[in-house]
Design goal:
The complex is a heterodimer of chains A (293) and B (643).
Chain A: H1 8-14, E1 30-39, E2 43-49, H2 61-67, E3 71-79, E4 82-87, H3 101-118, E5 122-126, H4 141-148, H5 160-168, E6 176-181, H6 187-199, E7 203-210, H7 212-215, E8 224-228, E9 234-237, H8 241-264, E10 268-273, H9 278-289
Helix pairs in contact in A: 3-4, 5-6, 6-8
Chain B: E1 6-8, H1 16-32, E2 37-39, H2 62-78, E3 81-84, E4 89-94, H3 113-127, E5 133-138, H4 154-163, H5 173-183, E6 188-193, E7 207-212, E8 224-233, E9 239-247, E10 251-261, E11 267-278, E12 282-288, E13 296-303, E14 317-321, E15 328-333, H6 337-340, E16 349-353, H7 358-364, E17 378-382, E18 394-397, E19 406-414, E20 418-419, E21 436-443, E22 448-454, E23 457-465, E24 468-473, H8 486-499, E25 508-509, E26 522-525, E27 539-544, E28 550-554, E29 559-562, E30 585-586, E31 597-599, H9 601-625
Parallel strand pairs in B: 4-5, 4-6, 6-7, 7-30, 15-16, 15-17, 17-18, 18-24, 25-29, 26-27
Antiparallel strand pairs in B: 1-3, 3-31, 8-9, 9-12, 10-11, 10-13, 13-14, 19-21, 20-22, 22-23, 23-24, 27-28, 28-29
Helix pairs in contact in B: 1-2, 2-9, 3-4
């Protein structure tokens, strides 16, 4: 079952988009994306001399009439695109529970998956540290993915980077890799994840989803003792106008560092607030950054 | 603590109160911060420089005060809080007679009776309430307390008590106790002594205790008569008074024979007196002294009733010199005698000298009024200069000292660094108590000896030249009454006593005193079987002159009579079994209920225990009234590690 957000109207909106890869990838099946493989597509590629055994239907008779030589037309083959969705399943994504940051990430992932599946692409959703789906095809597979994400995943280990690397080990064909996280960890960890994705020859995209408590923690945590959802580290908090401004500065600096870091690695990046409507993210942010077309 | 009606047996435990309060406040502050709120990540919050800028005030709950009260009660109880009787006036009599110097025979620690009594008295003072007022009566002062020993707090009394030492004197304990009874100024009278007193409980005094400090093995129970003291009264006609103490069954009659020894060394009979003494009491007999120029007197006690055999008769004879007879104090000073405090010197007449007549007096030893100083008189030169130091025992108080004693450097805020504890002037002083606002270093002749030293040099010199004693002080010694500087007053007394030959006349050495002779001195015994040895510039001869005395004579004809007055401290007061029924002897444990201290520790401990029980009861019933815990409290959204 898909979440209630996926109304027929919203689904029709999604069907207008397709996943855009900045490179061409070899696929295993016929699909809607141009493949580097020459074949029987509809997009003309080039000519070559006729050879014995070629299908006579591919002979360009107009050229033969002008040059008295037999040329065969070659076409770019269109194949499916492998889309790998990596979702951050760490506790920070579920904290605080009332904000629905994880649900937002889930809907985002299902929306992208729906677009890909409707374009005959193969989609896999990996939940590092938890279970993951195989590469699925066809529009109906969206329900399998919906069932996978129906429950909140529970990470079994605290080494998120290693879990991501284990999930990426399942990738056999290059394609598009999309990592959705709040990125509230160090650049070293992000670098390890990015390198692992690039090592799999994926066209990488990183979506950062931040909740209201991440943007303005003083409205939810207030003053007192704060504990890290993952490490349990406790710190004394006391907010005033100066502290709020300092936190805002630190957050923006962190985002800029992430953006700069990913840009150097030619990884697309966009930051989305979990309080934004999903339709806005799908119809504005992702097309603008080039993931959707 | 002074003046408070409460005291603590272990006051150092009170240190745990601030430590406990700090710990309690920390625990409550920690608890008041509540359960931590879980946030997604603290990676950015950790970088905040001002994250703890907002602090909340500490608002303890009611239980905090409950636990604080419990903590205080436990600490006070552990510290041994007790309530003392407020304003109690205590007369503490401590026996300083020479018998208190007795040591346990064969004991390794060489503890004296006085040490035992002193320790018991210190313990008693430690248990007294801080508001108590204590008067200390050393028995050698015969009922007097110096001004510095009156109305002391227990803490000060303990300090003063530590300064006392046994002296060669009789105790007169019974008379002192009766005198205290007549004064009716005290709530309690405690006597620390080795005597078996016959004192009955004193009327008007709430409590009378005799704390005995004797050693068990000494009480052999044998009857004993002792010649406990000889004293020469300075009246129109000098009189010798002999004190006799008896520990017998009932009463005993005795006889005292008095003999004198002159410069020739030949003894001659003065007289014989009879008397009766009852057990535990002191009896006296008197002898008018003829003016026959005797150097010393010898008294012999004899048993006069065959029914009582004096088992120990070693303490039955004593010597006394004709010491202070006619002694005067010539004082040369710009200050008046009253201002110097010398008018209060007992048993001595003071002859003031002006600065103008000092030089004349130094040469002729005669004042302008025609008063001639004799060898037994003392001269005090107080901050005046003289070209000649007379052949009199002289005390020079630094001012403008000429002659053999000269001034050295001057220093301010002097603290003596060393005392010559072996010298009779300074042997009873404690170094840390004396601090001088200013003083002079002294330079003396070779025959003088530095007694008190400071960093800038000797402050006190003493020495003998041709049989005459001199003392020079580099600081002000007066007033000797010691209202401002008690140690200086004791020092002054000691100096005057030393200059005056102590209890003996010049030329007579008392028992316990040593005769200091030049190096290489050789003795020959006149009348003995053989001379000892002979060499050196001056020869001394020593011979017996009958009745146990020795005569020391040098080649210049100068004589000294050695009078070994016998005193066996180990065998004195041996008749403990002859105590009278009226005397209540206590053991040495002074922790008695009679000390009017009420320990509150048990009350506090009981109160704290009750509070703990009530708290446990409250907590148990509270858990019964409340529903079972759901298991969600306090662990909401916490990661497993943190929970």
């Amino acid at each position: 079952m898909l979440p209630e957000t996926f109304t027929p109207r919203f689904l029709r909106q999604l069907e207008l988009f397709k996943i855009h890869a900045r490179r061409t990838f070899l696929g295993t099946r016929q699909g809607g994306h141009v493949s580097p493989k020459k074949g029987h597509g509809i997009e003309f590629s080039d000519y070559r001399m006729y050879q014995l055994g070629d299908n006579p239907r591919h002979i360009d008779w107009g050229v033969y009439a002008r040059s008295d030589r037999l040329y065969v037309k070659r076409f770019q083959e269109e194949q499916e695109l492998s889309v790998m969705l990596l979702l951050d399943t760490s506790r920070s994504m579920m904290t605080p529970p009332a904000e629905g940051k994880w649900e937002y990430v889930r809907d985002l992932a299902l929306s992208i998956s729906y677009i890909a599946l409707m374009e005959q692409d193969s989609v896999a959703i990996a939940l590092p540290g938890s279970e993951s789906s195989p590469f699925v095809h066809g529009g109906r597979a969206i329900h399998r993915l919906g069932a996978l994400l129906a429950e909140r995943p529970t990470a079994q280990s605290t080494n998120f980077v290693r879990d991501v690397q284990l999930s990426l080990a399942r990738v056999r064909f290059p394609g598009v890799g999309i990592f959705i996280s709040d990125l509230l960890f160090s650049l070293d960890e992000l670098g390890a994840i990015a390198n692992s994705m690039l090592a799999r020859n994926l066209d990488c995209t990183v979506l950062q989803v931040l909740g209201p408590s991440d943007l303005e923690p003083w409205k939810s945590a207030g003053s007192g003792l704060a504990a890290d959802s993952e490490s349990g580290e406790e710190i004394e908090l006391g907010f005033d106008a100066g502290t709020e401004a300092e936190y805002t500065f630190l957050l923006h600096r962190h985002i800029q560092e992430v953006r700069h870091f990913l840009h150097q690695k030619r990884i697309a990046f966009v930051q989305i607030g979990s309080n934004e409507p999903l339709a806005t993210a799908m119809t504005k942010h992702l097309p603008r950054m080039g993931l959707l077309k | 603590m002074s003046g408070l009606p409460f005291g603590f047996a272990l006051p150092w435990i009170l240190v745990t109160i601030p430590i406990g309060i700090t710990t309690l406040v920390y625990a409550y502050r920690r608890r008041a911060r509540g359960m931590p709120k879980v946030v997604a990540s603290v990676i950015l919050l950790r970088q905040l420089k001002r994250r703890a800028s907002v602090r909340r005030h500490f608002k303890p709950p009611a239980r905090f005060f409950f636990e604080l009260l419990l903590l205080m009660l436990l600490a006070l109880g552990a510290a041994g809080l007790f309530q003392a009787t407020p304003g109690e006036r205590v007369a503490l009599v401590i026996d300083t007679s020479l018998s208190m110097s007795a040591r346990r025979p064969g004991a390794t620690n060489r503890e004296r009776r006085f040490d035992v009594a002193q320790r018991d008295a210190q313990q008693f003072l430690g248990d007294l309430g801080a508001a108590s007022l204590i008067d200390i009566f050393p028995t050698h002062l015969h009922g007097a307390t110096s001004a510095t020993l009156e109305k002391l707090s227990p803490a000060h009394a303990r300090d003063r008590l530590a300064d006392l030492v046994p002296t060669q004197s009789s105790d007169g304990l019974d008379e002192l106790l009766q005198r205290l009874a007549r004064s009716a100024q005290y709530d309690r009278v405690l006597a620390f002594t080795d005597k078996v007193s016959s004192t009955t409980p004193i009327s008007g005094v709430r409590s009378t205790q005799i704390i005995t400090a004797h050693f068990d093995e000494q009480s052999n129970g044998a009857p004993n008569l002792a010649l406990s003291g000889l004293q020469i009264l300075r009246t129109d006609r000098p009189t010798l008074v002999a004190s006799i103490e008896g520990w017998v069954t009932g009463t005993a009659s005795f006889a005292v024979t008095l003999e004198a020894i002159g410069r020739s060394g030949t003894p001659h009979h003065i007289g014989r007196q009879r008397g009766v003494v009852r057990s535990g009491a002191t009896s006296t007999v008197s002898f008018p002294l003829p003016d026959d120029g005797a150097l010393a007197y010898h008294a012999q006690l004899e048993e006069d009733s065959p029914a009582h055999n004096d088992a120990t008769n070693k303490d039955n004879d004593q010597w006394i010199g004709r010491e202070n007879l006619g002694q005067r104090l010539f004082v040369a000073s710009a200050e008046s005698v009253e201002r110097l405090g010398l008018s209060a010197v007992r048993g001595t007449s003071v002859v003031p000298l002006s600065a103008a007549e000092l030089d004349t007096f130094s040469r002729s030893k005669t004042t302008q009024g025609g008063v001639e100083a004799t060898s037994g008189d003392l001269l005090v030169i107080h901050r005046l200069s003289t070209s000649t130091i007379p052949a009199l025992p002289t005390l020079l108080v630094a001012g403008e000292i000429n002659g053999e004693f000269s001034l050295g450097a001057q220093g301010s805020s002097l603290t003596p660094t060393r005392w010559e504890n072996s010298h009779s002037i300074t042997s009873y002083l404690n170094l840390p108590l004396l601090s001088l606002p200013q003083g002079f270093a002294l330079r003396g002749p070779a025959w003088s000896r530095a007694i008190v030293h400071s960093s800038i040099g000797p402050l006190l010199l003493a020495g003998e030249r041709d049989g005459v004693r001199f003392v020079a002080t580099g600081f002000e010694l007066f007033p000797f009454e010691g209202k401002r500087a008690p140690l200086l007053s004791i020092l002054t007394f000691n100096i005057l006593k030393w200059l005056g030959g102590s209890t003996q006349a010049p030329g007579v050495v008392a028992v316990g005193e040593s005769v200091e002779l030049p190096a290489g001195t050789v003795f020959s015994v006149l009348g003995g079987p053989a001379p000892l040895e002979e060499s050196g510039e001056r020869n001394y001869s020593l011979r017996t002159v009958g009745i146990g005395a020795l005569l020391l004579r040098d080649t210049a004809g100068k004589e000294r009579v050695l009078t070994p007055a016998f005193f066996d401290e180990e065998e004195s007061n041996t008749a403990a079994t002859f105590q009278t029924a009226a005397v209540e002897l206590t053991n040495r444990n002074t922790q008695t209920s009679d000390q009017a201290t009420i320990r509150l520790s048990w009350i506090l401990a009981l109160l704290a225990f009750t509070m703990i029980l009530l708290d446990l009861l409250y907590q148990s019933t509270r858990s019964l009234r409340r529903p079972a815990a759901t298991g969600h409290e306090g662990t909401r959204d916490l990661p497993r590690e943190a929970a």
